[in-house]
Design brief:
globular; Aspartate Aminotransferase, domain 2; 39% helix; 423 residues; 15 helices; alpha/beta; Aspartate Aminotransferase, domain 1; 13 strands
Length: 423
């Protein structure tokens, strides 16, 4: 089959477009703040990962500008060769201090950080045991690693224990997220760490949505539980609380040294641009100096979640600033997002294969810069829409991905447009 024939068969997104409810690639005409402009209109942004509201902070923007003036627009090479600047090393040292780990290695994206860590460290005869609802970057990294993979039921420690017992004679890396980007729940990290120690296996924590949000200093889920020293690798991203783009792996100096010389995602990718790294350094400083941002974030998250539940909406097991609402039908999720935007509120849909068929969601993401009046406005709008569209979810199967670690590919109309966390 020629490529032209293959791509011509893909009509599902066009079908959604024809219904006038296509929710992707919406062009924002302003900065990423609590209110954005779309088609010249002010829209309340409740679909961004800008948890601490730092992407538009004057000090962050000034730091990005200063980095460009000092180092230029780009690095013209990989970290391995000519693309390591003094600002990269400064950021790695600062992150290591912030996360209380021995060393940090920067990657150009958070996606590459997972691929670089997992695909490099998991050898052909090892097992990767990951949460069944792991992010796509974890799934892809596992495939690239040549290791064998198994999954435990989402946040189910007993199922993880069962698999560790099965593979007690194998070399194993356990992988989980700290805060899950679709469900908005938190991993039972104390129980997972305890099992990893019992079976003497390594633990990789993808804390993309936890850094800046959790922890006594914003240092993430491991810091929140006091388990930083017991978590072998922490993978994170700059595209959430840290106001930029990029990723990192925090671990022992030996692990970071190994990754520097073996991770193809690092060696064969262009280096993070100076502006990005400068912005991250400024964001880290603000997180230290303005802890009230984290307090406001949690106030807003709890306020909106309680309000949604008061309306009778199902927010699942969310206990973080990521707040899903179960709708059920994928097309209804698209309709709700379209109606909310028409009413002045930006939210995101989450449909299969990111979730199980019949379990499609809409997802609210809260920022510290939202006001309670803005959240009341959103609650009023979603309450009105919920009276027009019945939010009803089918009973889920016990296994969201019965044929493997994650979704192998979209098959039905609803399975094509997938919510992305943009790592």
């Amino acid at each position: 089959m020629r490529l032209s024939e293959k791509v011509a068969q893909f009509q599902t997104a066009r079908q959604v477009m024809a219904h006038g409810v296509y929710p992707y690639f919406r062009a924002i005409e302003s900065d990423q703040d609590a209110v954005v402009k779309i088609d010249g209109r002010d829209i309340l942004m409740l679909g961004s990962n800008n948890y601490l509201g730092l992407t538009n902070h004057p000090k962050v923007k000034e730091a990005a500008k200063d980095a460009v003036m000092r180092f230029g627009a780009g690095c013209a090479g990989s970290r391995f060769l000519n693309g390591t600047l003094s600002i990269h090393k400064e950021c790695e040292d600062r992150l290591a201090e912030f996360l209380r780990k021995e060393a940090v290695l920067l990657f150009t994206t958070g996606y590459q950080a997972n691929v670089g860590a997992i695909a490099t460290l998991a050898a052909r005869n090892m097992w990767i045991i990951a949460d069944a609802l792991s992010h796509a970057s974890i799934i892809d990294a596992a495939r690239l690693s040549f290791a064998r993979t198994a999954k435990f039921k989402h946040n189910d420690v007993e199922d993880l224990k069962r698999l560790l017992e099965v593979h007690k004679d194998d070399d194993v890396i356990v992988v989980t997220e700290g805060v899950f980007s679709m469900e908005g729940d938190t991993a039972d990290l104390p129980a997972i760490v305890k099992l990893c120690q019992k079976y003497d296996v390594d633990l990789l924590l993808d804390d993309a949505h936890g850094v800046g949000v959790y922890g006594p200093h914003g240092d993430g889920t491991a810091g929140h539980f006091g388990l930083t020293n017991d978590t072998d690798l922490i993978v994170g991203t700059f595209s959430k609380s840290l106001a930029a783009i990029g990723g990192f792996v925090a671990a022992s100096e030996d692990i970071v040294h190994y990754l520097k010389h073996h991770a193809r995602a690092l060696i064969f990718s262009a280096s993070p641009p100076p502006a990005t790294v400068g912005a991250v350094l400024a964001a880290l400083k603000i997180i230290d100096q303005e802890p009230e941002r984290r307090d406001l974030l949690w106030r807003n998250a709890n306020y909106l979640r309680d309000g949604l539940r008061t309306l009778g909406l199902d927010t699942g097991h969310s206990n973080t600033p990521i707040i899903p609402v179960v709708v059920g039908d994928a097309m209804d999720s698209f309709r709700v997002c379209r109606l909310m935007q028409d009413e002045g509120v930006f939210i995101n849909p989450v449909v299969p294969p990111a979730v199980q068929p019949g379990q499609s969601l809409i997802r609210f993401s809260v920022m510290s810069t939202h006001t309670l009046e803005q959240l009341d406005f959103a609650l009023d709008k979603i309450g009105q829409i919920a009276k027009k569209i019945t939010f009803h979810a089918e009973v889920p199967n016990s296994d969201p991905h019965p044929n493997g670690l994650g979704p192998e590919g979209a098959q039905s109309v609803s399975e094509v447009p997938v919510e992305s966390t943009g790592r």
